[in-house]
Amino acid sequence: MSDGPTSVGVSLRAAPPDRLPEVTAEHLRTRYAAEGVEVLLGDLSLSALRPLLDPDGPAGGPLEQRCFGSQQPQIDPRPDGPTRLILPLTVWGDRLGVLRIETGTPPSRTAIEEMHAIAGELAMALRTADRDTDRYHHARRKQRLTMAAELQWDLLPGRSLSGERFRLAGALEPAYAVYGDHYDWALTGDRITATVLNGSGDGLEATLLTAVAVNAMRNARRSGANIVEQAELASDAIYSRNGGNAHVATLLLEIDLISGAVEAVDAGSPRAMIARNGDIRQVTLEQQLPLGMFGDTRYEIQKVQLEPADRLLVVSDGVHAAAPGGGPDFGSAALLTALRSTRLQPPSEAVGTVLRSLRDYHAGTDAEDDAVIVCLDWLRQAA
Fold first, then answer.
1. How confident is the model at residue 367 (pLDDT cuts 50, 70, 90)?
2. Class of the 147-378 domain?
3. Using N-to-C axis directions, what is the helix angle for 20-32 and 109-129, rounded to 10°?
4. How far apart are CA 285 and CA 302, in angstroms?
5. Domain 5-139, what fold?
6. Cβ distance 270 to 371 under 8 Å?
7. Cβ-defined contacts of 217-220 (< 8 Å, 24+)
């Protein structure tokens, strides 16, 4: 058996779920004479990279952040110490963190390629192990989550996803005390279904309302239902539970990755925009009733057409309607400025840039609502 990526994959699959970093570190020390190894995971707000092997050690610095943002290996051949190699930990475009390896001499190109593959094996194992250990959840937290936030994070599909024809990312804030806003997506064949939700109310009740909506739509989607049927099943489930006293504003989208055709059900306040050739325009849709407002509500599909290299953006009302101190809302001008500044960034970076701009717009005051942004780049041709 090979000593490279294949054997470490076998070792990871045989290891207890909470010991994956140690198994990887031992392999790197044995095979590549690594003098130091650290696994750093992105925290919930993706503002810091937190160490796993030495939890009391320093967070990731500029080199680690550069690797995490660019998704490219970083090499630091220091003359006064070991060479540092930083590798991204990524699964299907979902950025988990970075792997830092220190060696006495600069590694060869072949060794770098092998260690890059090992980082990929570790990333896949870490994502799988999340269901069976709390170690990695604990490492990603700067502070304790509210119960509502705990439920919301468990509902999320991930924070980014990519394929030959698309790049997709989502962000949710505030990370440690979210309420009813949410996003969801699923890739099946050449189609992506994506939803952004604004749940009404506060705290745990808002989260439970969103959980009913998300799981009802997933139940319909996983049974082969289209987005109209997904919306109607979710609306009926919410109405049955709340009798019209609570509702969920939702935008459901199904994107054909071959043709760029988008089918939409606009059931509330999330707002969609398209960035094209340096211009950003709002997608005009006929707004239908929020989910759960009335019994037996029926919905209709509306159609939008993407062009190659288009960027589709969806924001919740916690973004576009945010108006700290009673001033003008963020969506009136500041949102467009923030979106234009992300033109050269991949979606995984763009969503964070917009939410940082929103935080700056609040100028130190607490946000009155949580905020969601989803960003999809349609590449059309294989990358």
1. low
2. alpha beta
3. 170
4. 7
5. Beta-Lactamase (3.30.450)
6. no
7. 217/184, 217/252, 218/184, 218/186
